Amino acid sequence: MPLSGIQIYKLLPKTNCKDCGLPTCLAFAMKLAAKQIELAACPHVKADAKAQLADAAEPPVRLITLKTGGAGAREVKSGNETVLFRHEKSFINKPGMFLRVRDDDPIASIQAKVAAAEAYTVRYVGIDLTLDGFAVQATAPFDPARFANVVSAVRASSKRPLILIARDVAVMTAGLRAIDGESPLIHGADASNWEAMAGLAKQHHAPLVACADSLDGLADLTGKLKAKGIDDLVLDPVSRQLGAALTRQTQIRRLALKKDFRPLGYPIIAFPGDATDPTQEAVQAAQAITKYAGFIVLERFAPEMIYPLLVLRENIYTDPQKPIQVLPGLYEINNPKPTDPVLVTTNFSITYFSVANEVEGAGLPAWLLIVDAEGMSVLTGWAAGKFDAERIAKAVKESGIANKVTKHRLVVPGHVAVLSGELEEELPTWEIRVGPREAVDLPAFMKQAL
């Protein structure tokens, strides 16, 4: 039975040192009991107390890490989540997005599919979005040698983490031998093969997927696997329909977080790629991102589907209380010359990319000065006192832009035209120009007025 906040408090040093970031040891104990902080945050807990607090310190959803070794190593983490809704606290580990290949496809087509996905990357608000790995599925009639060959072919084309999908123990054994020394995610163990799969997972130090079509079945299976010494587990509730998947994944998350039901306290794997229709695959993948998959296996590689899913994942797994920021500083657009204008805006990522994309897309050279407004947009930053004449002038001086341009023209956003007079006082050698209110109007303004 989990410890209460008061029971945890009795095991703490009770110094109220604030080293954990909280004002009192009691506050830390309450957070630990609610699974909202890790025991490691307190550096003063004694060894004997740590042993007693181990259960309280364990996250409600176990952290599972898939990692490859050697040069170009990658890793995917899932789990450690502590909330049902992102407005309570940001979600922690983004679900891994895996592309599936099947061992009955020709090797050449498999390698082409993997190569295309491996090369795919898209820049979004300063972040490179890519797929996380590949899943290799065995198909009937099962052939261990064929499965091993495909696993080897995928590994030769990519160093990203793998999921091996085969219920046949001989087939899975062959696949694991093909990448000996690695620890892919093994899918999976069910009521008929769990003992043999547990042996493979233990031998290869690999996380294992438990598969059952009911919550009772999943809980029973994870209990048996844990008794065999398998701690790193992933759940497959075998729900491939939209409604059933939503219901079961939500139930699993609620039981793990709200009831501290440890047999279901593991990440979930979802298979939107099992949908026969590409549109349904996209819909199911979007649902899996939001509710509450830790690993997502796709069948089709289509950039027009992958891109919005990756953007959705990025948005869902950012802190809703912290705006996405870019690094303040001076940026060059289209190789500007000393005679080109200096545009200024805040370090809110959407603002930055709106301005940069409009100017770059129009083929116009410019210097773009990004002011640290703590991630706020132009109007919000101005209203909060984070984007004012003093900060802008300071950014101009620290950037050294005065030594890079021969014509000192500074263009401020139209929404803060009121700052132009103060800026003239702060920067007496600069010509202050008021630009348009919207980024989309910048190219026309620059052509006509600058």
Describe the structure.
This protein is α/β, with parallel strands linked by helices and 450 residues long. It folds into 3 domains: 5-57, Electron transport complex subunit B, putative Fe-S cluster (3-methyladenine DNA Glycosylase II, Chain A, domain 3); 64-316, TIM Barrel (Alpha-Beta Barrel), CATH 3.20.20; 329-449, Rossmann fold, CATH 3.40.50. 39% of the residues lie in helices and 16% in strands. It is built from 16 helices and 17 strands. Strands 10-9-8-7-6-3-12-11 form an 8-stranded parallel sheet. A 5-stranded mixed sheet has the order 13-15-14-16-17, sandwiched between helices. Strand 8, helix 7 and strand 9 form a beta-alpha-beta unit. Helix 4 (107-119) runs parallel beside helix 5 (144-157), helix 6 runs parallel beside helix 7 and helix 10 (278-290) packs parallel to helix 11 (303-316). It is globular and about 80 Å long. 38% of the residues are buried.
Briefly say what this structure is.
By secondary structure, the chain is an alpha/beta fold. It has helices spanning 5-10, 25-33, 47-57, 107-119, 144-157, 169-178, 194-204, 215-227, 242-258, 278-290, 303-316, 349-361, 378-383, 389-399, 420-426, 442-449; strands spanning 64-67, 75-78, 96-102, 122-124, 127-129, 133-137, 162-165, 185-189, 208-211, 233-236, 269-270, 295-298, 329-333, 342-346, 366-371, 409-412, 431-434. An 8-stranded parallel β-sheet has the order 10-9-8-7-6-3-12-11.
